Structure formats: structure tokens, C-alpha cells
């Protein structure tokens, strides 16, 4: 069963949408289920000032994208890079075991968007690897 927090994010997802001229955009897919998540970041002076997402996926994928965007806004790029799917799940009071893989999409989409940002800026971000091309 989903926690109340997960259900609340599914019911009212935060930060759904797109950012025009985003500083970084990351799109990832879950090979297990075919679901897709895209995350947009606005970054000014190394701080994430806005984050939006579009997810074509299950409730857990939507809730984790929603929670992840809330978590990254106001963080520096380096702080955002440290956010793991475990942190996102904790913010949602956990996910049922068969849904843990869904939370990986949020971490991967965030990293893919930060990778896109680093490529556009021509900067090296320690600990960041290029996203899988699938
Ligand atoms: Fe596909 Fe959850 S079942 S992301």
C-alpha cells in the first residue's frame, strides 16, 4: 500500500509541466516497464531556481518526480547531485517493495538534467556520469 504522502503527491503532483529554455533537461526511461520521465531545471548562479517534470508512468513514478522537484528547488547543483532515490523515498515515507525501482527514475532524470546542464555550460561536475542511452 502507498503511504499517505505518496497518495497525496499522486492526487496533487507538484511542479508538473515544462520550463522553456531550461538550463538542463533530462529524459530517462525505465526498461522494466517502459515508463518515461522528463525533468527540467532552471539554474542561476549554481542554484536550482525551478524544476518541473513530465512523467508518463505509474503513480509511484509521478509521486517520486513530484517529490524530487520539490527537493531540488533552492539547492545548489552539488547538493542536488547528492540526492538519491533513497532520499526521495524517505521524503514520501517509503514505497512498497515492488515500486522501489520507480523511484530510480527520479534520481536518473535529475542526473540526466544536471548532465545536460553541465554539457551546455561546458563544466565538469564531480560524481556525475553521462546518462544511459538505453
Ligand atoms: Fe514504471 Fe513505476 S511501474 S515507473
3D structure, described in words:
The chain is α+β, with helices and mostly antiparallel strands. The protein is 42% helix and 19% strand. It has helices spanning 4-11, 59-72, 77-81, 85-91, 100-121; strands at 24-29, 36-44, 47-56. The chain has a 3-stranded antiparallel β-sheet. It is globular, with a radius of gyration of 14 Å. It starts with a helix and ends in a 13-residue tail after the last helix. The model has no long low-confidence stretch (mean pLDDT 95). It binds FE2/S2 (inorganic) cluster (FES).
Major sheet description:
3 strands, antiparallel
Number of strands: 3
| Overall geometric form | globular
Instruction: Estimate what percentage of residues fall within beta strands.
Output: 15-25%
Reconstruct the topology from this structure.
Blueprint: H1 4-11, E1 24-29, E2 36-44, E3 47-56, H2 59-72, H3 77-81, H4 85-91, H5 100-121
Antiparallel strand pairs: 1-2, 2-3
Helix pairs in contact: 1-2, 2-4, 2-5, 4-5
Which tags fit this structure?
binds FE2/S2 (inorganic) cluster; alpha+beta; 5 helices; 134 residues
Characterize this entry briefly.
With 134 residues, the protein is of the alpha+beta class. It is 42% helix and 19% strand. The chain has helices at 4-11, 59-72, 77-81, 85-91, 100-121, and strands at 24-29, 36-44, 47-56.
